[in-house]
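Teaching assistant here, posting this on the class forum so everyone can see the example we discussed in section. The complex has two components, and the goal was to see what a joint structure prediction looks like when all of them are supplied at once.
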Amino acid sequence: MVHAQRMFGGGLRKSTQVLIARITLTSLTLAILGLFLIPMVYGITTAMKTDIQISRPGAPWWPASTRTFTYEGKAYEVYLVPIDGTIRELALYRPGRQSSLFIDPENPDAGPIEWQGQWRQLERAWTLDIQWANFTRAWNTINFPNLLRNTLMYAGITTFGAVLSAALVAYGFARFRIPGKNILFMIMLSTVILPGAVTLIPTYFVFLRIGWVGTWLPLIVPAFFSWGTNVFLLRQFFLSIPRDLEEAAMIDGASPIRIFFSIILPMSRPALTAVALFHFFWAWNDFFGPLIYLAGNPDLYPITVGLTAFNNLYSQSTNLIQAASLISAVIPIVVFFFAQRIFLEGVVISNLEK
Amino acid sequence: MAPLPEFGGILRRGLAKPQRRKLSKLEKKEISWGLFFISPWMIGFLLFYLLPMIASFGFSLYDFNPAVPDQARFVGLANWERALFNDQEVWLSLGRTIHFAAISLPISLLFALFLAVLLNSEHVLGKSVYRTLFYMPTMIPLVATVLIWNGVLNDQTGWINVIIERLTGIRATGTQGLRWLADPNLVYYAYTMFGLWGVGNAMIIFLAGLQGVPTELYEAAQIDGANWFHRLFFITIPLITPVIFYQLVLGVIGSLQYFLAPFVLNGGTGFPEGMTRFFMIYFYKQSFTFFNMGYGATLAWLMLFIAMVITIVLFGTSRFWVFYAGEER
C-alpha cells in the first residue's frame, strides 16, 4: 500500500514535469513559428490594402479603409471620439476650432452631438475593406497567364527530360559492370558542387553562335543529359530493388532496355515522383538561366524573371508587388501541402545518405 | 551518413581493382549496355562540363566580346594579371562575399539546427504541423521571398520596424531608424533574414540526422546522470557533425555564388555603398553587361579555384571536428 502510494506520487511529479516541459516547449515553438511567418502575414494583408492605407501612419494592420457615414445625402468621415470615458465612433458633421458637432451613425435621428476639443487630433475609424482587385490588377499587369504558361512549359519539359535521363543513367550505375564506374560516379557527384559560372561563358557563346540565345533551347536541352543529384537519388532507390524480377525477365530473353521500361520504372514510381517534384520546383525557381538566355524577350520570361521586371517597374506599388509575389507562390505551396511526404523524404535521401 | 569518406572509399576501390584478364562475351555485352545507359550523362558531362571548363580557361587568355567575335585578341595572362593584381574590385567583391557568408551561414545553420533539435523533442506537440509550416516558405520562389521581405523590412511601413517600435519604444521607423536595406551595417543581416526562409532543407536534414542517433546512447547517458545540455553537446551534436559538415560545404559553395537577392533588389548596383556587389554580381556585370567575356571567364576560373581552396581547407579541418562512427579515429 505504502509502496503503491509512493509510486503514484512519483508518477504525479514526473507527469507535472512533463506537462511543464510540454507547455514551455510547445509555446516556444509556436512563438518562433509566429515570428517566422510574420512576413507571410504582412505580404497577405499588404496585398489586400489600398495604396493610401499603406502609406498612412496609424492605419490598422489589417486591410481596411476609413469609414464614412452618409447623413442627409452627404458623406461624413467617422472618427473615434472619446466621450464620457468611452470611445464612440461618430461622424464629423460640423468641424470647428474648439468644438465640433458629431452625428451618431447608430442613432442619426438624435441630432448632432457637441464635443469639446480639436477634431484634428482624433483618429479615424477604419472598417474592414479587402482590395481583392489588387490581385486581379497584379495578375493582369504582370501578364501572369503568359508567365505561368512559360514556367509550366519550361518546368514540365525539363522535368520530363531530367527524370528520364537521370533514370537511365542511375540504372546504368546501379546494375552494370562498367570499367572505372566508381571513378565516373565520383566525378558525377563532384559536378554537383561545381560553381556554374565556370562553364557558363563558353556554353553561352556556343548557344549564341548557333542562334539559341533568346529561345528556350539553352534551358531545355541540357536538362536531357542528367544531373548528379537526381541520378544519385534514383541510384539509391534502384539499388534497393531486388534483382529477381530482372533476372527472370532476362532469362525470358527481355533486353535491358525493355526491363528498364517495363519493370524498373513502374516499380520506382515514388522515387521518380520525388525527383520529378524536385526538378519541377527547381525549374520553377530558376532565375539565372532564364535571366541570361532570355534577356530582352519578355514574351518568353518565366515567373521569376517576370516578377523581377515587374518589381523594377512598379516598385512604388507595394500592394501590387506583394500580390504578384503571393500569386507566384500559390502553386508551389499547394503542391507542397499535398506532396509533402514525398518532398521531405526525398530531401533526406538526396542529402543525408551521400 | 558520412558524406565524404564515401568519395575516398570509391576512389580507393576504383583504383585498387585493375582488370587485366580477358573479358568474356557476356561481360562485354554488359559493359556496352552499361555504357548505353550512362551515355546521357557522359555526353552531357563532355558537352556541358568538361569542354566548357577547358574552353573557359582558353577564353580567359583572350580579350573577347561575343558581339564582335572577329576582334578577339590573344592577350596571354593579361586578364589574370588584371584580376589578381590590378583590379581592386575583384578582391573587394570577394571580401564582401566572405563577409556576408561569415554572418549568414552561421546564423542560418544554427537556426536550422535549433529548429531541428526543438522539433525532435518529445515534448513539442504537433511536430509534423510545425515541420510543414517551417518548411513551407522554402517552396516560395526566391524572387517572391526577396520581394515579400523587402516589404516587411521597409524602413517606414515594414512590420519589423513597426513591431520593434511598439515593443521597445525605440524609434525604428523613419530616416533615423533601422534602415535594413539602406544601411551598410544592417544590410547583411537583412539578407540573412531572407535566407532564413530557406531553412527548411537544412532543418529536415538535421532532423533526419537527429533521428538517426541511437536511443541507447541517450538512455545510457541518462543513467550516468547526464542532463539535457550534456546530452546535446556530448552525444547529439558530435554524432551529427557529418551532417553539419556537409551543410557547411554546400553553404560555402552556395554563398560564393550569391546573386539573386541583390540583383532583384538593386539590379546589382551594390546599394548601399557597394556593400551588395558580391563576387557573382561582379562576374555577371563583366560578362553579361559589359560583355567582357574573356575577363568574365577569368573571374569564373578564379571562383573555381577559390571554391576548391575553401573546400580543401574545410576537408582539412574536418578530421579535427567531424565524427564518423565506425571509423578508427
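For the discussion questions: Chain A has 14 helices and eight strands. The longest strand of chain A covers residues 74-83. Think about how each of these relates to the inputs above.
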